[in-house]
Amino acid sequence: MNLGITEVKKGMVLKVEGELYSVVRSEFVNPGKGSAFIRTKLKNLVRNSSIERTFKAAEKLESVDLEKRQMTICYSDGDDIIFMDTNDFEQLPVSKEYLEDILPFLKEETAMEVSFYEGKPIGVIPPNFAILEVTYAEEGLKGDTSGTALKRVTVETGGEINVPIFVKQGDVIKIDLRDLTYVERVNK
């Protein structure tokens, strides 16, 4: 669907030079002299890189509608993760590269939104948080109560994360998957 520059909004998906980009930021500029334009920051949905791009008022942009499906992780298979559609139970492979940094913190059956374009998966939106049990933690140093001391622990999925020294093996913790940080201990 073609649209003018005044219709571009954050979150839209555009096709630019044959590639799909999500609009991260858009700023409409109407200078006193010359024609209006829009400054954008775009994120490539395949390569996960960002570009800044300016479009003139006369340019027509192509908006893309993506199919979004709720899916859960079934298992890992080589370079792919096999997801299952929660509505029709269809299983589809999705490249691990969409989740590589948070993969060590995801359990099977974790629900996510998978975006498709022309039947192919092009993006995965994971949950913001994971609740996981600590399977290995060294004892904290006695007397260090400053609150800023950290230690490395291993969680049930095999991922490692820095946590405050009071966290011990068997604790259940909440991890922010957006920046891979410890949030809090959770009651079982």
TrEMBL record:
Q: Where is the Elongation factor P C-terminal domain?
A: 130-185
Query: Where, per UniProt, does this protein localize?
Result: Cytoplasm
Protein's UniProt keywords contain Cytoplasm:
yes
- Where does the protein principally reside? cytoplasm
Highest taxon of source: Bacteria
Q: In which pathway does it act?
A: Protein biosynthesis; polypeptide chain elongation
Q: Quick one: a GO cellular component term?
A: cytosol
What family name appears in the similarity comment? Belongs to the elongation factor P family.
> What protein name applies here?
Elongation factor P
Q: Which organism is it from?
A: Leptospira fluminis
The organism that produces this protein has a lineage beginning with:
Bacteria, Pseudomonadati, Spirochaetota, Spirochaetia, Leptospirales
